[in-house]
Amino acid sequence: MAATAAGLTGSLLLPAAQAAKPARPLVIAHRGASALRPEHTLAAYAKAIADGADFIEPDLVSTKDGVPVARHEAFLSETTDVAKRPEFASRHVRKTIDGVTHDGWFVEDFTLAELKTLRTIERIPQSRPGSARYDGMFQVPTLEEVIDFLAAQSATVGRTIGLIPELKHSTYFARLGLPLEERVIATLAAHEYTRRAPVEIQSFEVANLRMLREKLGKRANLRLVQLVGVGPVKPSDVAATGGSLTYADMATPAGLRAIAEYADVFAPPTRALIPLKKDGRLDTPTALAADARAAGLRLVTWTFRPENRFLAADFRDGAGDDARNEAGSIAEMRRYLALGLDGFFTDDPALGVKALAG
């Protein structure tokens, strides 16, 4: 790579300034158009762009040789054909990462060359048989390949498409000697496209975002996004260091003001904004949207999915849990958009575009 983290502040981003607030909520392609193509493949990103997404999201993990690649987590068994590859049978292990234990295969045990021999598969084929028809067709892309592809697609469609990478398992990878932050920002710095196009770096952890803000300052095309879960769960880096901060603490007015000191965007799950009643229908909105705006944060939520099993009961159509329900998904997104969102993650960007059309 031509750039290093040390040279990042002078080479990655535009001069320091606050980026303009979007004219309308941003449609963010969650793992690409992951309702229609196997997640985190160039095909999923291409479909998302064709369907009108403003941003594509590559979740990033590290190979054994330190290359950032697009997978939702380190666990490879659910999204690649690794279980069918006898040459890698001996690498089947049990690991606990960020409190979750899996038996299978993990990205950090594969070099990039080895990972490139695998092919992707659909994570939930029972709900997405159309996507599962693409099983075995695509490779796991590197971050560098994603950026090259995004630049080419942007030139083809005639509009700038943003990149919103998420740093996954940062503390875990750092302990393995495979720190994501330095490699990711060096890759971003090496590409002309990501030196000028919108880039939003996300994490469920806190320390890495604080470090990035301290190193990068405020930049015109860069935003930092604090993702949060719900309840008494601690961010992984906080848990690893024995801290007490929980996602519930972060969602209080005081917690949001603290987030605003280093991040630009607050991104809770949808049900933290409008929870569900016991019958599965939407309840009264919480104060979280208003509190985030009061703290000076942009508000983005995750994730809208088009199958009945993922919808609030208000919007299901009775066709079965695995049935695709476009009208219900659009109606649910519109209910949340009424809260004044600045953006939202969706597995089906075409439906997000329709939801915004009114």
Automatic annotation (TrEMBL):
Query: Which PROSITE patterns does the entry mention?
Result: GP_PDE
Keywords assigned by UniProt, alphabetized: Glycerol metabolism, Hydrolase, Signal
Give the GO terms filed under biological process for this record: glycerol metabolic process; lipid metabolic process
Q: Which organism is it from?
A: Pseudoduganella lutea
All residue ranges annotated as the GP-PDE domain in the record: 25-356
One GO cellular component term of this record is: periplasmic space
**InterPro entries recorded:** GP_PDE_dom, PLC-like_Pdiesterase_TIM-brl
Protein family per UniProt: Belongs to the glycerophosphoryl diester phosphodiesterase family.
* Name recorded for this polypeptide: glycerophosphodiester phosphodiesterase
